[in-house]
Amino acid sequence: MATPSLRILCSTALAALLLLSAPALAQQKTAKQCNAEWTANKAQLQANGTKKKDFIAQCRGTAGATAGTTTPGATAPAPSTAKKPSAVTNAGTPTGAGQFATEAQAQSHCPGDTVVWANLSSKVYHFSGNKNYGNTKKGAYMCEKDTAAEGFRAAKNEKHP
Questions:
Q1: Is beta strand 124-126 parallel, antiparallel or unpaired with respect to 115-119?
Q2: What does the pLDDT look like over 16-54, one tens digit per residue?
Q3: 64 partner at 20 to 30 Å CA-CA among 15, 71, 74, 140?
Q4: Where along the chain do its domains lie?
């Protein structure tokens, strides 16, 4: 007689566990989302001593995070508030329409378009993979479709990805 009631108790506990863990799993970020956050904040996170493996583990909420990820900049920031320490941070916040401080912000604004780095001084934009992408003194991330309206042109020595 103890076996059937034990089965019922175990199955009830299992069902409750699954119901409680479902919202947590739905809120957990994917590795791709965490990797995008790492990329957008790489310099700041590395300056704080955070390693990519630790950041991804903490971002995804897995048990692999170590004590080194408890630094203030190591928490998983939301893409809309994250800032990549780059020329944009040094030069101030981008002021033009469609200009973003982080790659993640630009990507969320134009998910079907290519995100480019626009040099605000020269009005030339660069594609991901180019040495100038995200590295000019004064620039911003933009959607490629918005660059023409702002008077930007593609760099002559680069090909569209």
A1: antiparallel
A2: 555 555 555 555 677 788 888 878 888 887 888 888 888
A3: 15
A4: 29-77, 87-154
